[in-house]
Amino acid sequence: MDPNPSKFPMLSYVMSRLPSLAPKPSTPAAPPHLCTIRIDPHPSDQPPILNQMPHLSDPKVLAAMQRAVADVSQTRSALKTLGDRPDHELVDTAKFRLCEIDSDLAKRLEELVISPRPSDFDRLQWRVRLADKEAQFREAAEKEKQGYAAILQLDELHSAYDKLLKDAEQRLVKIYESAMAGVVEFDEEKEEGGDEGLINDQVPEEVAGILQEASRTTLDRVNLSGRQLRFLPEAFGSIHSLLLLDLSSNELKVIPESIGGLEKLEELNVSSNLLESLPESIGALQKLKVLNATGNKLSALPDSICQCRSLAELDVSYNGLTYLPTNIGFELANLQKLSIQLNKIRSLPTSVCELRSLRCLDAHFNELRGLPLAFGRLTNLEILNLASNFTDLTELPDTFGDLINLKELDISNNQIHALPDTFGRLDNLTKLNVDGNPLVVPPSDIVQQGVVAIKVFMAKRWLEILVEEERKSMLQVQDQEETGWLTRSTSWLKDYVSGVSEYLGSPRAPRDPILDQQL
């Protein structure tokens, strides 16, 4: 759990010099000569890294570095309490069990809904009883899921910790480089001066330094990842030269509206914060190409995001989104990668079908109930992940076969009974996962043979369907021809009979009275 010295040499050294908050075990007093050795300020066997980086022995540099990795220290302490990272098999088992629990819950609720009302219950009493039963089922399912969900959360924490270590090592390298250049600011210096000290009390030291630097020079990249920032000054919106802004892994709850002033910004990373919304002014970022807002508390995206017409990558995964902006597909013509996994999205807007540049769409772990009928228009799509929408996703549209460039498809852990008839037209598909579906078409023996066998089966099925439709069409034409001859014959006969009837039914000529005379 401690940083690996070979991968993170500076971080490992700094972390080893952090004071321990754990209570010291009661041990017998050490002999005086051993105590003297422990507190010797100049030990003879100093770590090899000090020979390579002598500035690490400077107490001020070390103190600055320790402040910079406070988040790593806190996370390490938390993980030591929570335990080691679960192995891959345990994580997979937890995911599978969560799927099973949700599936069982859906079946029980379905059976509950269709259960007949006893004769001794009136409608109101029966509804109350059903509601109570449903609440019991859901509560039992949630209790059963808690342990498995905790395993996944622990795995995600360890994954985030790995990234945190990499970011921390990069921060330490920058601090050391600053120390070599003699420009590191320390607490003693920060406390000197009236106005400057007041500014630093309100604005984090590093942020204040960036704003001061931006007023003197041209800044194009700012990395404030993992600084435990709780707010971002409005003045940041005045750094008009900025191309990249990384605010990830902080404690930001709000991004100021002034960010719309970053007219040249191409990449914005606000992932792993506490954001509940994005500013409406984000639509002013006309040159923004990459937006990463994963791991926040977003419940919706501002409609103005559709005005970021240069956007090529949008990652809003791990949030609480329930829908996407209605016009997202009509405006973001250059979007190539859309990541919306682990949200609560129930349906995709029909405009998504207009994302003609889209190459990768990840929508797993949502509540999708289907795809738009025109989904096949996404002819440049290469990777599609619709896994784990569980009981909500039951079918794919007939236009699915028009995704001629699709290479990877994951529709596992859903309730799909049959692949669309046009599935055999996906010639470029090389990777397919359909596990966890009650598939009938194709049958299980074909599924077990892999993606090639599935495509061959579905292609033959499609051909048979076309042949059958052609046969029915020909029969229909023949029937129409025969029906036409019979109709013409019937019409002629009807006309003939009508003429005869008119003749027979016509009034007779007056009878000659001479013929009535008796001879």
UniProtKB/TrEMBL annotation:
Q: Which SMART domains match?
A: LRR_BAC (SM00364), LRR_TYP (SM00369)
- UniProt keyword list: Coiled coil, Leucine-rich repeat, Repeat
Q: Which InterPro entries match?
A: Leu-rich_rpt, Leu-rich_rpt_typical-subtyp, LRR_dom_sf, LRR_domain-containing
Biological process terms in GO annotation: microgametogenesis
Report the GO terms under cellular component.
Answer: cytoplasm
Lineage, top-rank taxon, reads Eukaryota
Q: Name one Pfam family in it.
A: LRR_8
Q: Its family?
A: Belongs to the SHOC2 family.
Name of protein: Plant intracellular Ras-group-related LRR protein 1-like
The source organism is: Pyrus ussuriensis x Pyrus communis
